[in-house]
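forwarding from the other thread:

> can someone predict this with NAP?

sure thing
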Amino acid sequence: MRHSLSPTVQNAAFRALDLDWVFVAFEVPEGRAGGAIDAVRALGIDGLSVTMPHKSAVATAVDRLSPDASALGAVNCVVRRGDELVGENTDGSGFLAALAADTGFEPAGRRCAVVGAGGAARAVVLALARAGAEEVRVVNRTPDRAEAAASLAGTVGRVGAERDLAGADLIVQATSVGMADRAGAVPFDPDLLHPGQVLAELIYQPAETALLAAARARRLTVANGLGMLVHQAAIAFEHWTGQSAPLATMTAAVSARLAAG
Ligand code: NAP
């Protein structure tokens, strides 16, 4: 929480649009999410972002859920609408917006594979299915979690094996393998990749994981997780303020903060 990028990105956006809003991070102990939501009601706070480990608990504490938050059982953004607090999940729509902006890839009718089955992967699986993917194959170290994630894609969801990645049009790397503390590790054999495929990596720090570099060397179209980070924040901003988010300002603010370490 102390390392959250949300205050940086949202306060930059509020300043850019000259809005009288401020984003403040609060550390909430595990098990106290319900109390925090009661405090939001009492204090009349208009919106908030929710991070781990509270995303599931907040889903049971708000008054209403969006279809995505309900399907995922996880909330990353709360919006006040009249007297109600509505739980949203902006990860999937943020991912799709970033994918379109950074790679031009359109999931409708395409074969997609998601590596990983955690919270981020689940949001991506649901979003790809909702966007009309022909198939969403989930490849994960723990098979039970792959099964649960694949079921979010309904009839187009399948559990896959690593070798299936060679047949996908889009591969989304949604595990934590390759993050700064394990930089250099790859979650699958990059020799399965070939030109014509798109690789979307959800990690943004480091900006270029070993997998992303290997995919680039094999002439794939690639994107890292910075776009998803900014777009999901931009969608939250738009829910709260009703105004178009200043994407360039938000991207610059996050990039500067990441560069500063
Ligand atoms: P999570 O819920 O903890 O899930 C982690 C996933 O990584 C699980 O599928 C886990 O497999 C897999 N994994 C972990 N260590 C592994 C290993 N050594 N070998 C193989 N698989 C391994 O995490 P999350 O919240 O989904 O986040 C996943 C990644 O997405 C992180 O890097 C996070 O920074 C990134 N992310 C980015 C954005 C963005 O806006 N760009 C948003 C959210 C998350 P098991 O199921 O087998 O444990």
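The mean pLDDT is 96. thats all i got for now
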